[in-house]
Amino acid sequence: MANSLYDFGMIGLGVMGRNLLLNMADHGFSVIGFDKDATKTGALESAATAGTTVKGVADLATMVQLLESPRKLMMLVPAGQPVDDVIESLIPLLEKGDVVIDGGNSHYTDTLRRVKYLREKGIHFMGIGVSGGEQGARTGPSIMPGGDQDAYAKVKPMLEAIAAKVNDTPCVAYLGKEGAGHYVKMVHNGIEYAIMQLISEAYTLLQKGAGLSNDQLHQVFDSWNKGALQSFLVEITADIFLQKDDKTAARLVDVISDKAGSKGTGKWTSQDAMELPVAVPTIDTAVAMRTISGYKDQRLAAEQLYKAPADTTIHATTEMWIKQVHDALYFATILSYAQGLAMLHEASRDLQMDIPLPEVVKVWRGGCIIRSVLLEVFSKAYTENADLANILLDKGVAYLVQSVEANTRSVVAQAAQAGMPVGGLMSALSYFDAFRSGRMATNLIQAQRDYFGAHTYQRIDMPGTFHTEWQRP
Questions:
Q1: Residues 437-455: tens digit of each pLDDT
Q2: All domains of the chain in start order, with CATH
Q3: Which of 6, 396, 423, 468 could form a disulfide with 285 if both were Cys (CB 3.0 to 4.6 A apart)?
């Protein structure tokens, strides 16, 4: 195979890049990878399945020369300047019609810039979101491509082959123009932040509120994963409670620091939601809670300064409390998806990306971190109305939300009385109450703005814009 041409190339042979290439090779494609680190090129070849065609090289020009024309290659390098540096290295080596893919977590505005820059040179550029982690990359990720449809047509067979499958349908589809692929992945990550925060709050409510042990927590989350809350994140949460620490006799979860890390993609979702604008308060809260988790010294000092409420009793049997917390998590999870999908609906129109939401929820059904049985519900909603502005307006979704609303209110109220931090649940409930209010108190805010800044207001009884010379009594 040394003198033959390869179907696909990968720049960056870290865990994700290596596993995606091996996945392609397992599906019959001949692949070649480049990395300056010779140990990584060697690891790629040694990990290849017997009988597959896999090659690693430490020279970029060699890799490009060995690719079948039009060349199809992907970068999996850190977002930001490294992507631009690779692009500049590639330009002299490429020809018109070649396809370059950024499979990392780049911000969509960078993708927009790169699409235009390379289009002028006759080179197709695509931003593709990939979700599923190390295992997903190897066995079937969720893939979110956007950009040039002609370029997508060239790589579609490969992407469909390696993507996760749900009911024999690949979890990949063309998700819109220009930077849509990375935009969808960004919102995916924002929803991921929110659901992880909500699960951590359920953990707090069950551990502190009901005194459940790790074994009991495992049983609860395992049972939840067999029902309406079935999802990847609930599944792995059940597993986590059983993991033993190899350094002590404790369960590992109990010796892990409560200072949570992040890579910034959740923050991007919040920032870009504000720019649109669209409300994503549960995602915002999840980002804020990770930030607060970093204030460890301040939190320890505040714990001594501000004592917990005198009455922290949960007024429910353990069995009833578990049921109520289940329902609150279910409610808020739906609300998290609703906020993220509403953001995609708004961005699709305002940023002219033409993001097909029915395809988005199908792509998310398998392989990705936020895969969940709920996505089947949302898929049905979009089948009935592809232009649904918010899934909360679907009657089927409304029925599910209303079925758990009362228990959600009970959990939030008792958590507030007991002083437990459940900002995600609270924000989801507040969003819901605002969204279902035909008239909000923002008429007062409009009056205030006009009073102090002559910002004007609209009336409910006649059209037009008005200003009043407000009188002090």
A1: 999 999 999 999 999 999 9
A2: 8-174 (3.40.50.720), 185-435 (1.10.1040.10), 442-473 (1.20.5.320)
A3: 423
CA 155 centroid distance within chain = 23
CA distances from 247 to 213, 242, 255 (A): 20, 15, 10
Q: What is the DSSP string of 192-222?
A: HHHHHHHHHHHHHHHHHHH---HHHHHHHHH
CA torsion sign for 409, 414, 416, 420 is negative
Asked if 56 and 45 touch (Cβ cutoff 8 Å), the reply is yes
What lies within 8 Å, CB to CB, of 28 at 6+ separation is 161
> What residue ranges in 136-188 does DSSP mark as E strands?
142-147, 165-166, 169-170
CB under 8 A, 24+ apart: contacts of 417-420: 417/309, 417/311, 417/312, 418/208, 418/209, 418/308, 418/309, 418/311, 418/312, 418/313, 418/314, 419/308, 419/309, 419/312, 420/201, 420/204, 420/205, 420/208, 420/209
Give the tokens for residue 390: 């918010």
- Give 138-156 pLDDT, tens digit per residue: 999 999 999 888 899 999 9
What positions carry a catalytic annotation?
A: 185, 192
C-alpha 341 chain-centroid distance: 11
To the question of pTM greater than 0.90 for the whole model, the response is yes
9 bridge partner residues: 32, 73
Give the CA radius of gyration of the chain.
25
Compute the distance between CA of residue 188 and CA of residue 336 in angstroms, rounded to an integer: 10
Work out the number of other CB atoms within 10 angstroms of the CB of residue 297: 8
